[in-house]
Design a protein that fits this description.
Elements: H1 5-9, E1 13-17, H2 22-34, E2 40-45, H3 50-62, H4 68-74, H5 76-86, E3 87-91, H6 104-113, E4 116-119, H7 130-149, E5 156-160, E6 171-173, H8 193-209, H9 214-231, H10 237-252, E7 258-263, E8 265-267, H11 285-293, E9 298-300, E10 309-311, H12 312-326, E11 333-338, H13 348-356, E12 367-369, H14 372-396, H15 404-426, E13 430-432, H16 435-445, H17 452-455, H18 466-482
Parallel strand pairs: 1-2, 1-4, 2-3, 4-5, 5-7, 6-13, 7-11, 8-10, 9-12
Protein name: Fatty acyl-CoA reductase
Keywords: Lipid biosynthesis, Lipid metabolism, NADP, Oxidoreductase
EC number: 1.2.1.84
Length: about 475
């Protein structure tokens, strides 16, 4: 199939949810930079009104370093003109009907104009409150679908999920949609998404009737999410609620073309708009930073497990290419797993060796422990037993300043919580099949590889040179854009 991504974007009207999020901003910046003749970008952000939405987009998106290449190439005046002509801030919330839009005239105008709907909005906290996770990741996705169905010109819904909806399965993980009826846990108990919501509402009602504090309600809702996720075979609330979101989309899409993008761990940009842009500590980065600072003395990691990372600009390129390929197609329900473990794998052990041989960061000696049982034993011997002695000292000498036992016990509790949340990823034994993504990339480049326009949208993981990327791009990006040094 021949197509041109830049030409596809021309005169298109695109709705993007979660527009202040990391990936959504990379996606929006790319569109504005390569195709200023896009018709309109309706950007949905959580805000009280249009003015608040405009302010959020300005401070959390357009004033960020990410947009400096576009700003410098156009000049301030033309950049601001481009935004005012092409970007429409929308105050909304995908957890609500009509995406939480109060302005009915704006809603009707959008439903007449929109060609492509891109849902990037999500809560990515592993142990999110169950009510929040269901509201955004599961039924929020359904709300976006219902809105897209009302858009008379809609050619496609592109939904960003996560590759880790697979749970903790080992081996080669297929690039295919979920079938809701097939989802059963080990006790042959079938998942009923609507029942999950009712169960959550009932628990929330009980907590409110008991006059619980907001802190207690949050704790109970987080515990319920993790409990329900593990009951059905998922490691945490995040991937469980994202999985259910995919299931609802597949079940209720009807004739609307649907593309699901499942990225692995998204990292800093490889090349566009410049190398190394990142925002916040992504999944693996908090461990890398703590390791580099020398504050992490031990962690749960299997050195033979593959760390499946993919730069953010490659994910954005895959999103645009998939939209250009499938917009207006019939009976489309495609899944693209966008990662590196199949074609260009790197293990945690290899990452450690790269850092060991680099002078960029001061690397501490860190003990990497390959199983949860061994890690718990290590923590007991190394920290918990001495902690009991410290507790005894605090009892014998209560007048001592500070409460060393409680303080250190709290820190150990935080470490164990972090390790429990990260366990499914640092011990992960799966490889993500990406044959759909590989074919998409090959078609996008074209057999003769001569279309320079389409080469701007490369997302082939084989081009990543991991040592160069980590040492010269990713770590400097973390230092500049996250640690602000």
């Amino acid at each position: 199939m021949e197509f041109n991504c830049v030409h596809f974007l021309q005169n298109k009207t695109i709705l993007v949810t979660g527009a202040t999020g990391f990936l959504a901003k990379v996606f929006v910046e790319k569109i504005l930079r390569v195709q200023p003749n896009v018709n309109k970008l309706y950007l949905v952000v959580r805000a009280s009104d249009t003015d608040a939405a405009t302010k959020r987009l300005r401070t959390e998106a357009f004033e960020k370093d990410l947009f400096k290449v576009l700003r410098e190439s156009l000049g301030d005046e033309n950049f601001n003109t481009l935004l005012s002509e092409k970007v429409v801030p929308v105050a909304g919330d995908i957890a609500m009907d009509h995406l939480g839009m109060k302005d009915s005239k704006l809603r009707e105008r959008m439903q007449k104009e929109i060609d492509i709907v891109v849902n990037v909005a999500a809560t990515t906290n592993f142990d999110e409150r169950y009510d929040v996770g269901l509201g955004i990741n599961t039924f929020g996705a359904l709300n976006v679908l219902n809105f897209a169905k009302k858009c008379v010109k809609a050619q496609l819904l592109l939904h960003v999920s996560t590759a880790y909806v697979c749970g903790e399965k080992p081996g080669l993980l297929p690039e295919k949609p979920f079938v809701m009826e097939e989802i059963r846990n080990e006790n042959d108990f079938q998942l009923d998404i609507h029942r999950e919501r009712e169960l959550m509402k009932q628990r929330l009602k009980e907590l409110n009737e008991q006059d619980c504090s907001e802190e207690d309600i949050t704790r109970a809702m987080k515990e319920l999410g993790m409990e329900r996720a593990k009951l059905h075979g998922w490691p945490n609330t995040y991937v469980f609620t994202k999985s259910m979101g995919e299931m609802l989309l597949g079940n209720y899409k009807e004739n609307l073309p649907l593309v699901i993008i499942r990225p692995t761990m998204i990292t800093s940009t490889l090349s566009e708009p410049f190398p190394g842009w990142i925002e916040g500590l992504r999944t693996v980065d908090s461990v890398i930073i703590a390791y580099g600072k020398g504050v992490l003395k031990c962690f749960l990691v299997d050195v033979n497990s593959v760390c499946d990372m993919i730069p953010a600009d490659m994910v954005a390129n895959a999103m645009i290419t998939a939209a250009a390929t499938h917009a207006g197609g019939s009976k489309v329900h495609m899944v693209y797993q966008v990662g590196s473990s199949r074609q260009n794998p790197i293990t945690y052990g290899e990452i450690r060796e790269i850092f060991r041989n680099s002078s960029l960061i001061t690397v501490s000696k860190m003990k990497l422990i390959p199983t949860m049982a061994l890690f718990s034993l290590y923590m007991t011997i190394r920290y918990k037993l001495p902690l009991q002695l410290l507790k005894l000292v605090d009892i014998i000498y209560p007048s001592r300043k500070g409460d060393n036992y409680k303080n250190k016990n709290r820190k150990i509790g935080m470490v164990m919580r972090l390790v429990n949340l990260y366990e499914p990823y640092v011990l992960f034994k799966g490889i993500f099949d990406d044959r759909n993504t590989k074919n998409l990339c090959a078609n996008q480049k074209g057999e003769d590889n001569q279309n320079s326009e389409n080469l701007k949208f490369d997302f082939d993981p084989k081009i990543i040179k991991w040592r160069d990327y980590l040492i010269n791009v990713h770590i400097p990006g973390l230092i500049i854009h996250v640690l602000k040094k």
